[in-house]
# Entry
Amino acid sequence: MKPAPFEYHAPTEVAEAVRLLASYGDEGRALAGGQSLVPLLNLRLARPKAIIDLNRIESLAYHRLEGDVLVVGALCRQRDLERDPAVLARCAAIADALPLIGHLGIRNRGTVVGSLAHADPAAEWPLLAMLFDAELVAEGSGGRRSIRAADFFKGAFSTALDPGEILVEARFQLPPEGAGTAFVEVARRHGDFALGAAGAVVAGDDVRLALGGFDSVPLRVAPDPEAAPSAVNPVDDIHAPAAYRRRLAGALARRALELAKERAR
Ligand SMILES: Cc1cc2nc3c(=O)[nH]c(=O)nc-3n(C[C@H](O)[C@H](O)[C@H](O)COP(=O)(O)OP(=O)(O)OC[C@H]3O[C@@H](n4cnc5c(N)ncnc54)[C@H](O)[C@@H]3O)c2cc1C
# Structure
């Protein structure tokens, strides 16, 4: 299938993109890597009146480590992080997760921030955002605001972004050097969305666990593998029964916590 007709804009400044998006209200959609939006357009599951293409806004194409904070602009491709040895060395959980996201071609175009805005409950970046208490920076016609990851994911494919707002930056608060982190998942085939995933941090007394794919949003739960099956709320679907997913939550929680502990110095 081909998309329904839409108006197309390719601004070069964030302010212009915000103005355009606001002018269409909930009938406008931002386009980043297009790896989720374009299939939705082609299947006509999304029929926006206008697409605001962010790809020419060069000021959004960056990432950097600012002390313990990994700062990622809206046009940073997933592959940009995968190719940055400093990022991979600084955070093992991110290094674990990146190769599990789709395939190389998808990560070449797909953005980190686009994945957060898309809010697929089984996606890797939303889980990492919960694990690392990310701050998500949105810009709309009223200016900029910062939203904690815990307040950002409202449901499957639903976020706290208002119509007309663009997510311009994500700020991941990495644990201190020497902390152990890990990300593990189970998928039916390499590159498929995960049936379930777990991320863990072990930094002295600060032990954290986040789970994804088991609920409509990624969850921060008590770092206890025994408690994990009852901390999630999976449903039966064509991929796996809920009972399997509950057991998987416990198994992945254990694996992620053990690996993070091994890696902690
Ligand atoms: C075959 C295939 C397999 C995949 N497997 C995985 C996987 O295993 N794990 C995984 O996590 N992902 C997977 N993906 C999705 C991929 O990671 C996408 O790149 C990502 O989900 C969306 O990023 P994007 O930049 O492509 O966003 P787009 O597709 O451009 O946009 C997605 C949505 O987010 C909105 N949006 C994007 N950027 C912004 C912004 N800055 N501000 C406001 N709204 C914005 C768009 O309006 C749209 O609604 C897969 C995709 C494909 C095609």
Observations:
- The two ends are 53 Å apart (CA to CA).
- The mean pLDDT is 97.
- Residues 61-173 form a domain with the Uridine Diphospho-n-acetylenolpyruvylglucosamine Reductase; domain 3 fold (CATH 3.30.465.10).
